Amino acid sequence: MKSDRLLSVLLLLQTRGRVPARELADRLEVSVRTVYRDVEALSAAGVPVYAERGRHGGIELLAGFRTDVTGLTTDESRALFILAAQGAHAALGLDAALGSALRKVMAALPEPHRPAAEVASRRILVDATRWKSGPQQAVDLEVLQDAVFSDRRLRLRYRHSGERERRTYTVDPYGLVAKAGVWYLVADRRGSPRLFRVDRVESARLLDEPVRRRAGTELADVWEVLRRQVEERENGVEVTVRVPRDLLDMFRRVAAAQLTDLPDDGESEWVTARLAYPVLRAVRQLLAFSDRVELLDPPEARAELLAAARSVTAMYRDPGPAGD
After folding, report:
1. Cα separation of 22 and 114, whole Å?
2. Which of 167, 139, 138 is closest to 155 using CA atoms?
3. Region of residue 102 (phi > 0: left; psi between -120 and 50: alpha; otherwise: beta)
């Protein structure tokens, strides 16, 4: 709606100051001509807005002009009070600030929208932690936050999964990402994107050097690249198995992260499923189902499972020290 767009233009200008017409058009997904028409409409309504042409020009509000109009709809009001990552605010030390901000927003909301916002905060709860994910190590984000917000380099002492030795890295941080209850530092190391799980950071020291990010690259861009790399690596080995129908519910729960396809026609005694593992050795997860789940292919995965089963059999066949 045009009225919503006009309000968006007004609030963007109030927040950002001078903004190029092209940037406004991109943000609002309209043409530059439409942006100029909206500026004329705002001016006709008494808003002191003007446009300057030229290389350094843009659209701007008269200095000192402010509006207390929130323009929030009922759905927007609800959205502000449904906290999509409640653990994130505590980890960042922002619980008190969040509560204060929400109280201010509630006071600024139009009276008809307040009940909807209050009900949303009591009726919707989002817990980003997975079931049975095990105890989470406490994460200290203070130094990492300082680096992100002050645009400075970091010296990390870091422990990789499966390694006993710690490594030292000098990195250029883009920001922090919380995914499924786990915090990650997104940074460049020697100009290449890297992902560091925060609970594996043994120590972090802020350096005096300014951050050296790649020009024109934002956190969201680097995260998308790293996210794709992780997902592609996790799909390294695809296997096909058959599962008895009476085991389907347990199988779905245990292998949920690896499942890529589980067609179910609801009739046959056995159901064929496909899974993806990051490395061949990871197919040993299927031993948890004993002889109830059969791995059909590929052959190398069957061989890996057979080798693991033989190793387990040999261990229990040998009575060990207690039988000597």
Report:
1. 35
2. 167
3. alpha
Q: Which amino acid is at 220?
A: A
- Token duo for residue 185: 């530092």
Distance CA 276, CA 42 (A): 55
Instruction: Tell me how crowded residue 242 is: count the other CB atoms within 10 A of its CB.
Output: 14
Segments of the chain assigned E as strands: 49-52, 58-61, 152-158, 167-179, 182-189, 192-197, 201-210, 237-244, 259-261, 270-277, 294-297
- DSSP calls for 175-186: EEEEETTEEEEE
Alpha carbon distance, N-terminus to C-terminus of the chain: 83
Q: What is the pLDDT of residues 11-58, one digit of tens each?
A: 778 767 888 888 888 888 888 888 888 888 888 878 888 888 777 778
Q: Is the peptide bond before 48 cis (omega within 30 degrees of 0)?
A: no
Residue 53, token pair as written in the block: 């042409």
Q: Is the pTM of this model over 0.85?
A: no
Q: What is the DSSP string of 247-284?
A: GHHHHHHHTTTTEEE----S-SSEEEEEEEESSGGGGG
Lay out the sheet containing 167-179: strands in order across.
Answer: 192-197, 182-189, 167-179, 152-158, 201-210
Residue 84 pLDDT > 50, yes or no? no
